Amino acid sequence: MAVERRTRVRFFLSFWLFVLSAVAFLDRTNISVAGLQIGRDFGLSNQHLGWIFSAFLIGYAAFQLPAGVLAVRYGPRRVLTIGVLIWGLATALTAILPTGMPDALLFLILVRCALGIGETVIYPAANQFVARWIPQEERGIVNGLIFAGVGAGSGLTPPLLTWIIVEHGWRAAFWFSAIVGVLASAVWWVFARDTPEEHPGVTRAERREIREGLTCHSVAAPAARQGGSRKIFWRAMFSRPDLVALMLGYFSFGYVAWVFFSWFYLYLAQARGFNLKASAYFTMLPFICMTVFCLLGGGLSDRLTRLYGLRVGRCLLASVSLFLTSLLLLTGSRVHTPRLAVVVLAAGAGALYLSQSTFWSVSVDIAGRSSGVFSSLVNMSGQIGGAITASLTPWLAQHFNWTMPFTVAAVLASAGALSWLMVHPEQSMDE
Fold first, then answer.
1. Is there a domain that residue 223 lies in?
2. pTM of the complete model
3. Which of 196, 210, 337, 376 has its CB surrounded by the most CB atoms within 10 Å?
4. What is the pLDDT along the chain (431 residues), one digit of tens a residue?
5. Is residue 1 domain-resident?
6. Is 24 in contact with 225 (CB distance < 8 Å)?
7. CA distance 426 to 19
8. What's the angle, vertex CA 18, arms to CA 147 and CA 185, rounded to 5?
């Protein structure tokens, strides 16, 4: 009897979504590393930089719902490839901005808004991929891998781009970001497919393994074989109280995360007295913690789900991690020793990312075939939180001190922890 060959194509594609996630955060955080040089060239203050940071998030948040609809109707392969090309173009436009341009602030705001619009598709498309390709018992670790790209991209950005900026100027850093994005999108287009049935490299054994592991596979698997259902169940989606709870929770998550993404580099330089190179290296620490704890949280979520069910594996884990985040932010912002403060605040970033994969796994658990749209609504609220913190953080630091932004973030993290008590992933829309 011939031995049936098994493949693991879904894990390679999940890994490439990790790469695209890292590239997305390389492109969205490069301006915070180059902010001092850009501000000096164009006469921009911290408040102006805050508006530029917020412009990205406003564009990103505003187009989340259309991105989710596109991911459901046209599939993650096509939508994600086009999205990456758009954000690569926006990054390149930043690099060609001439020094001394009188309307540089407006130009940067518009270009960063366009970058945000291009990047809207990354996670709704990734979540639609998870819904069609990943068995339920693997969703936590796969989402953990995808979102580990957030920490990897953000963590590598400061030292890598600082070196490029020092050696070749800030424009070279943006050209580098744009080229990497185009290459990553080309690989995705060549190797990805919208469903396992469409992929020539997936064996029957892997297709069967995927079908059997999908939530409510009697419904979801036939939809996957037909290329995925294009119908979006709007009424069922908006009747879920846990959609509101998840949006509130992810608003808090986004607010806290963007304190690190947009201002931590400058916080170390301005509030803690680190020089440019030291700031670049110490800024890596929170993002290393995000990467490690994101993977850990995904694996832990899957294990707890198998042992105790979805409420414990998804909701309890996320709630505890957000409470821990709040505690560490309050402590780290009040530590007097700069290096110890970095370590404690980095641990807070890591604790936050213990909950990252659960937001997205729960979206698939609840919404099934409509998860691209459901997760885009959740993600939209997170980016609104990020847009607020990008502009509010320098205002709080200026009118109070640098402790206040972390205090506000800690309060919101606690509120996010409480919101998870209203989430019920064991009740699927597909059922």
1. no
2. 0.78
3. 376
4. 444 566 789 999 999 999 999 999 888 878 877 887 888 888 888 778 888 888 887 888 888 888 888 988 899 999 999 999 998 999 999 888 888 777 888 999 999 999 999 999 998 899 889 888 998 888 888 988 998 888 788 777 778 888 898 889 889 999 999 999 999 999 999 999 999 999 999 998 889 888 888 754 433 444 444 444 567 778 888 888 889 999 999 999 999 998 988 788 778 877 887 776 677 678 788 988 998 999 999 999 999 998 999 899 999 999 999 999 999 999 999 998 888 989 999 999 999 999 998 998 898 888 877 777 888 889 889 988 988 887 788 889 888 888 999 999 999 999 999 999 999 988 877 66
5. no
6. no
7. 31
8. 130
Q: Answer for the pair 55, 115: CB distance below 8 angstroms, yes or no.
A: no
Q: How far is CA 128 from CA 72, 257, 414, in A?
A: 7, 23, 29
CA 161 centroid distance within chain: 20
Which tokens is 215 given?
């939530």
Enclosing H/E stretch for 131 = helix 122-133
* Domain extent for 81: 9-212+232-422
Pair of tokens at residue 390? 């990008």
Which residues, 6 or more positions from 345, have their beta carbon under 8 angstroms from its beta carbon? 264, 286, 328, 329, 332, 333, 406
Amino acid at residue number 17:
L
Number of domains into which the chain is organized = 1
Residue 220 belongs to a domain: no
* Nearest CA among 362, 406, 398 for reference residue 250: 362
**Given the structure tokens 């206040």, which residue do they identify?**
404
Residue 353 is which amino acid? Y
- Please give the DSSP secondary-structure letter assigned to residue 315: I
Q: Is residue 222 part of a domain?
A: no
